[in-house]
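Subject: Sanity check before I submit

Could someone independently write out the structure tokens for this chain? I want to compare against mine line by line before I put it in a report. The sequence has 167 residues.
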Amino acid sequence: AAVTVVVTAIFLANWLIARRATAYRRRGQEDPRSPWEILVRCLFPGVNVVVAPVLVIELATVEGRTTQLRRPIVLWWVAWAISAVVATWSVISTVLVSTVWPSPQGIADNTVITLVGYLFALATVALTARLYFRFERTAPHHSAHRWVVVGAEAPAADSAAERGDQH
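---
Independent answer below. Compare away.
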């Protein structure tokens, strides 16, 4: 499970770097954040809960999709923050139950906290997948350029009408 979490985090951080680079390139700009900065901010525990969602919001803004993605991003962010708090609480509880208060009630409380942590982790994984696919279902927003060729001469149909040719 731990390896899966690490591999998924690295995959998503690299996806974010690539998606941001593409979005900024389409705007004719360079991403103001370096790939290493994004990796560190996404992979460093604790910091990632605060900063990674900001990077995703910046991506949505650059792609021009902030309005449609704001709610999924906020839901994901809240679930992730709660999951991180509950996971930290569970680890502290486990340490305390194992060393300081090894009572049956402490073990039961720790079991409940761990179960709640797993449920929030599951919700966070589901919301992460949902948000990822919301981004991936559509290409990054870019303005459409429509080129119209305007000739100096009149169109052929008008020339034929002027000459009196009729078919």
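---
OP: Matches mine. For the report I'm noting this point. The longest helix spans residues 66-99.
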